[in-house]
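Usage

Read records sequentially. Each one opens with the input sequence:
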Amino acid sequence: MGAAYFYHLTRQPLEVALPALLEKASAAGWRIEVRGTSLERMQWLDDKLWLGADDGFLAHGVAGGSEDAHQPILLTTNAEPGFECIMSIEGATLDPQEVSDSQRVCILFNGLDESAMQQARSQWKTLTEAGCAAQYWSEESGRWQKKADSQSAAS
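and closes with the structure output:
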């Protein structure tokens, strides 16, 4: 059974925070689905990942290509089978079964956007009430710190 990790972005934009998390998940040997809500934003993210540091290239593709099943990182707007790690961005939803079936689910949300904050709170509630383990991480101090987990949220 996996766990959901909520990442509250306040200092770094998505295009900076996401590649660092992708590198860690890739180092764990996981295939990764990055799930967003619009194809335009997935294409924007594709461009950002291609422009990353030469020594930190992350092999990836946008869903809809002939090589989707072979992509170590797939950018998509739909749930896709066969991934050990799912990274939800910009409010893309997932269900408790996906958390259970994955090694890790990461939910990245913009802490400067009130609607994104409300969406993250709603996802936390849905997942933890369904029995999923969850952790909340914040970068407000300048580095990532765990602020809560599902056990402390229930107490």
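Summary fields computed downstream for this record:
- Strands lie at 3-9, 32-35, 61-62, 73-76, 85-89, 104-110, 133-138, 145-149.
- The radius of gyration is 15 Å.
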